[in-house]
Amino acid sequence: MAPRVVVFNNMITPYTNRLYNELVDRGLDLAVLSCIAQEADRFWAGSFTPRYTTRTVPGLSIPLSRSRHTHLNIGIGRALNALAPDLLFVNGLYPSMLAGAAWARANGKALALTIDGWRETMPDTAYHRLARPWLLRQCEAVVCCSDKGRAYFRDQGVRDADLFVVPLVPAWDPPATVPDFHDRPFHLLWCARINDDAKNAIFFENVAIALGRILPGLKVRVVGSGAAEARMLARFASAGIDVRHDSYVPWQAISEIYLQSRLLLLPSLLEPWGLVCNEALQCGVPCLVSPHVGASGELVRDQDNGYVCALDEQTWVDAARGLLEHPARWEAMSLRARQSVPSDALADAAARFTTAVDHLARAPARQEAVP
């Protein structure tokens, strides 16, 4: 009999829902328990249809920053008893996740951690220095989204045999065809929260303004909102840059934004992965990213399907200009961008997750004291 798998996460997203539905279609007995239906600054609740059991436990979502929250929930044990997992995946180090892990240990259920991020993005507070080692001792497997994440957890003492990489996959399929260089009206695309502490919006502004002095008629597409939103738009207006801005575009329509754009710039200071890179590349949009982006070097390959550039503004200006002023060079990189996102990415992610499930199912059940 197939084991019952429960993923306990903070919330279901359009892209995780796509993976979960694929897993169910492949026969996995899956349920998802969430801390919250939708965090602040998100707009996708109700926009997708899960084909698996879902349940949300009541509680509080406490903002740590504009882009990070922690969760404190009640009734976790009752919810897990009702869902009756044989295998439990917890999705982070929130207090609620530790409660779920304690439930697994108390009930002799196999436990895994599934988490994005890598060395640069893993929190290192006193809480995390206590919670992370404890949780890792309880887990029979750790699932990451990147080789960087696997390297981090290897350094934390997790055995290679217990480490699995399940790449993130966009919520939508690659388009069958994409426009060429001259049919894309926007030179630069920003598609992220507009802040400086993580996304480094001011760096993007500086690069765009510098390019505007070199390339007449520069057009910028901005999708996002945030603390630096008013400043960004005001600076572009002052510099005479043609900008189109939407605070939000539904995920079902976001491919049109990429298909109108020539380059995606993501100069983040803190980025666990950067799913916008997957989305851009599968629409033929080369990406310029900082080394602080999780996808840098793994998905976005320097001088192949984009550029991985140190945060030096002139370097970014030169890299962007080298493509925007040479359509043939852009077309070649655009083709490589599309080729770098395999057509079977969803099937591959589902197969990798299933391998982690099979590994967890073979782990001996154990019970031990919990803190």
Structure description:
With 371 residues, the protein is of the alpha/beta class. The chain folds into 2 domains: 4-171 and 345-362, Rossmann fold (3-Layer(aba) Sandwich), CATH 3.40.50.2000; 181-339, Rossmann fold. It is 36% helix and 19% strand. It contains 12 helices and 15 strands. It has helices spanning 14-25, 76-83, 95-106, 126-138, 147-155, 201-214, 229-238, 254-259, 275-281, 313-324, 327-339, 345-362, and strands spanning 4-9, 29-34, 53-56, 59-63, 69-73, 87-90, 110-114, 141-144, 163-165, 186-191, 219-223, 242-246, 261-266, 287-289, 306-308. A 7-stranded parallel beta sheet has the order 3-2-1-6-7-8-9, sandwiched between helices. It has a 6-stranded parallel beta sheet with strand order 12-11-10-13-14-15, with helices on both faces. A two-stranded antiparallel ribbon has the order 4-5. Helix 6 (201-214) packs across helix 10 (313-324). The longest helix is centred in the C-terminal third of the chain and has 18 residues, at 345-362. The chain is elongated. The model is unreliable at 367-371 (pLDDT under 50).
